[in-house]
Amino acid sequence: MNPPYQAPDFTLPASDGTSYSLSDFAQKWLVLYFYPKDDTPGCTTQACSLRDARDELTDLGAEVVGISKDEPTSHEKFKQKHSLNFTLLTDEDGTVIDRYGAWGKKMFGKEGILRKTFIINPSGQVVKVFGRATPLGHGEKVIEVLKELQEK
Fold first, then answer.
1. How far apart are CA 113 and CA 69, in angstroms?
2. N or C: which terminus of the chain carries fewer CB neighbours within 10 A?
3. In the chain, what's the furthest Cα-to-Cα distance?
């Protein structure tokens, strides 16, 4: 689907035990990103880039949320180890990952979670999709695009 379109709803557990739904971020910008696995090189680079961009994203009225299939305890260790300052949600059965189109063929024909980032506006619409997001400098790219979207 091409943006803008209504973001698929979700309710998933966070690393601290609370559950979050799309409606929890209503009236805010949401940077929702899907990633393959906690504490792997590419995922760590991407998470740290978003961590470093978070203050500026917050100033722009945006929340950052990451989703993978990892268990909440794995997310908590990942957050602690890299001082991640945003919410990580667990989608163990992959339902939400699938709804967002973040599951598919990867390198060497294997299937798995695709590195995708969605910018969702305060009305709950997906307005930008980064397909196969590049981990390095991802936070800066998201800031740049969010500013452009907010100027429209």
1. 9
2. C
3. 41
Asked if 43 is an active-site residue, the reply is: yes
Six token digits for residue 119: 């910018």
Q: What is the pLDDT of residue 130?
A: 92
Q: State pLDDT tens for residues 66-110.
A: 999 999 999 999 999 999 999 999 999 999 999 999 998 877 778
**Domain boundaries of the chain, sorted by first residue:** 5-151
Q: In angstroms, rounded to a whole number, what is the distance separating the alpha carbons of residues 13 and 11? A: 7
Give the tens place of pLDDT for each residue, 14-27.
Answer: 988 899 999 999 99
Catalytic residue among 32, 43, 64, 96: 43
Instruction: Please give the Cα distance from 127 to 93 (Å, whole number).
Output: 26
Which numeric CATH code is attached to 5-151? 3.40.30.10
Q: What local confidence, expressed as pLDDT, does residue 123 receive?
A: 94
